[in-house]
From TrEMBL:
Residues 165-177, 224-237 have a biased composition (Polar residues). It is found in: Nucleus. It comes from Sphenostylis stenocarpa. This is Transcription factor MYB35. Keywords: Developmental protein, DNA-binding, Nucleus, Repeat, Transcription, Transcription regulation. One of its GO terms (cellular component) is nucleus.
Length: 340
DNA sequence: AATATCCGCAACCGCTCCGAC
DNA sequence: CGTCGGAGCGGTTGCGGATAT
């Protein structure tokens, strides 16, 4: 038995809103504020579904909304965060003042997705399409026929979008072909010229895991933080080889979803330095000991996950272990108001 | 100039989440 | 602890303007 509809769909107006209806919503909110949207149509004198009223307000009428075009900085931030957390539009929008989840979602679907595809970047995985193809081909445990079918499908999609070169040719801004890049992606970055610079292992990993990487990797662990916004190369690479060459079960997406990564983004979409993070944490009321502990914890997070997974811990085991350790270490940060 | 096609965006739909009871 | 209902989220649809033929 399903839930009854929130309103009588046959008796409410649908479709585009008139200025008069907008004025009624605005007047109602000005007098009563938002909340209990199911009562709004009746109280405001509207023949609309309450849900529709809420949508109209949140997506269009809210006074704090920006109605101008997205800036390049906002574009970069959306791409970065989408690469990290996927299509969680409300989360992305919450970090872009004046933008709604609907705005961000529409902008992604109409502009950014196509832009990435033209750049040869798979908008779902944010990897070079050549790498996606390579990954598909190397999936173990899948019968060859299935893989072949998947490859055929992907090839068709890519050809339709002019993303798959008909022959090996140098990619823009590099002397190496896409195929060569794929083959070397374990150790070299794959680059093409782009007005964007997306968060990658190169500019995230050294920042977040400077302590961990210094002890686990002899590769370059520059702590230079690259500011987004300037024209730079779009660098994609497989982090596994650099960070955990000894462990093949590590999944970079797990890290991207971790709060360690989220902490490295501030609302403007710029990567924060350790000093900035410290200052922010301090200004938020954390004491020095707490800040140091957080930084140490953040830096050690990747190494911890790699170790645990190499030791045969399941993903869930790792989360539970981590939860216990964090609760023991920072009881003051894990009060009811802490989002975790 | 008329028609077809494309594109962007507002709005809708169905579902999940979460607090109140 | 289960149910109810409001709020919110993400995917999808469809309208209207812009552009191509």
């Amino acid at each position: 038995m399903g839930r009854p509809p929130c309103c009588d769909k046959s008796n409410v107006k649908r479709g585009l809103w008139t200025p008069e209806e907008d004025a009624k919503i605005l007047a109602y909110v000005a007098n009563h504020g938002t909340g209990n949207w199911t009562l709004v149509p009746k109280k405001a004198g509207l023949n609309r579904c309450g849900k529709s009223c809420r949508l109209r307000w949140t997506n269009y009428l809210r006074p704090d909304l920006k109605h101008d075009n997205f800036t390049p900085q906002e574009e970069e931030f959306i791409i970065n965060l989408h690469g990290a957390i996927g299509s969680r539009w409300s989360v992305i929008a919450s970090r872009l003042p004046g933008r709604t989840d609907n705005d961000v979602k529409n902008y992604w679907n109409t502009k950014l997705r196509k832009k990435l595809m033209k750049m040869g970047i798979d908008p779902v995985t944010h990897k070079p399409v050549s790498q996606v193809l390579s990954d598909l081909g190397s999936i173990s445990g899948i019968p060859n026929t299935t893989t072949t079918n998947q490859m055929a499908f992907v090839n068709k999609e890519l050809v339709m979008n002019n993303m798959l070169p008909t022959k090996t040719e140098p990619s823009a801004g590099s002397n190496k072909s896409m195929v060569e890049h794929t083959q070397e992606s374990q150790v070299h970055s794959w680059e093409l010229h782009s007005p964007y610079q997306v968060l990658t292992t190169e500019n995230v990993q050294p920042h977040v895991f400077s302590e961990a990487s210094s002890s686990t990797s002899s590769s370059s662990s520059s702590s230079n933080l690259t500011q987004l916004g300037s024209p730079q190369s779009y660098s994609c690479q497989t982090p596994r080889a650099q960070i955990a060459p000894h462990c093949s079960s590590f999944d970079w997406s797990d890290f991207l979803h971790s709060d360690s990564f989220m902490w490295s983004l501030n609302p403007s979409g710029l990567v924060q330095s350790e000093a900035e993070l410290s200052n922010n944490a301090k200004s938020n009321g954390h004491d020095h000991q707490g800040v140091a502990a957080i930084e140490g914890c953040r830096g050690a997070s990747m190494e911890y996950q790699i170790k645990k997974q190499c030791e045969g811990h399941s993903f869930v085991d790792g989360i539970l272990d981590r939860d216990s350790e964090l609760r023991a270490a920072f009881p003051e940060f894990l009060d009811a108001s802490f989002e975790y």
